[in-house]
Design a protein that fits this description.
protein-cysteine S-palmitoyltransferase activity, acyltransferase, elongated, Palmitoyltransferase, EC 2.3.1.225, single chain, two-stranded antiparallel ribbon
């Protein structure tokens, strides 16, 4: 489990869980139970909100507390007498060979498209960015769960707004407490919904273009506009979400075969 001592990240994670719990409390205990009184529609809506919040928390947990793809600190760099970088086994490094480069901060040899995170103080494979809302980097191993977190937060926000509007139509007479909670939930849902929708679109765009945020920022304008030869979009999405039916992509679990996981980890060792 990875816990970053970053004040901004700790505040954002705490705020995320607090708002999810507040949403669950309002919809379930302030609206559904008092208004529907064991009605069938109340049961259905209760199951929906509990499922969405559970999946959002599970996705957030996997994105926040699991390895995003840290490059192992197993092959340290040293300076040879002629000024060229070598690894700890005294073999000459060739940073341009197969895209591998040397990181002078971690003092290691890292694979292609791995970048250094100044907050985690580690190099991360296919690093997209460091997200304070999960207090962790978003990289090759946890991008799927970060995207699912955005998706379920967005789905919870949309559902909450629609449910509040529907309850106002079905039960126009409400207590003062229910009205205040309804307004607060709608404001929270709108703010969070717009935010996660923006980030979600950026994440999908990074998959389609096969470029992380850092990869894009490091390119000049001409390189960004240059045409790319990319595999089909389905293959690009499978690289992030894994193989199997598309409905399995919505489950915050790892469906990779053990051989695939082993092969991915073994790519770090050269």
């Amino acid at each position: 489990m990875l816990l970053r001592k970053d004040p901004c990240g700790i505040v954002c994670v705490t705020l995320t869980y607090a708002m999810l719990m507040h949403c669950l409390y309002v919809v379930l205990f302030v609206m559904i139970i008092p208004l529907f009184n064991d009605n069938f529609y109340g049961t259905v809506n209760g199951v929906i909100i509990c499922t969405l919040v559970f999946l959002a928390i599970l996705s957030h947990g996997r994105a926040a507390y699991f390895d995003p793809g840290f490059v192992p600190l197993t092959r340290k760099l040293t300076d040879s007498p002629d000024g060229k970088l070598t690894d700890s086994n005294n073999s000459l490094l060739k940073p341009n060979e197969e895209g591998w480069t040397a990181c002078n901060r971690c003092n290691i040899y890292r694979p292609a498209r791995a970048h250094h995170c100044r907050i985690c103080k580690r190099c991360v494979r296919r690093l997209d960015h460091h997200c304070p809302w999960v207090n962790n980097c978003v990289g090759e191993f946890n991008q799927k769960y970060f995207i699912l977190f955005l998706f379920y937060i967005g789905a919870t926000s949309v559902y909450s707004i629609l449910f509040i509007i529907w309850s106002l139509v079905v039960f126009p007479e409400k207590t003062e407490s229910q009205i205040i909670h309804s307004v607060v939930i709608c404001v929270e849902a709108c703010l969070f919904g717009i935010f996660v929708l923006t980030v979600f679109v950026d994440q999908v765009q990074s998959i389609i273009t096969d470029r992380s945020l850092i990869d894009t920022l490091k390119l000049d304008q001409n390189a960004r506009m240059a045409p790319q030869i990319l595999p089909p979009k389905r293959i690009l999405f499978r690289k992030v979400f894994g193989s199997g039916p598309m409905f399995c992509w919505l489950c915050p679990c790892d469906f990779k075969k053990p051989s695939q996981i082993t092969a991915s980890v073994d790519m770090y060792h050269v």
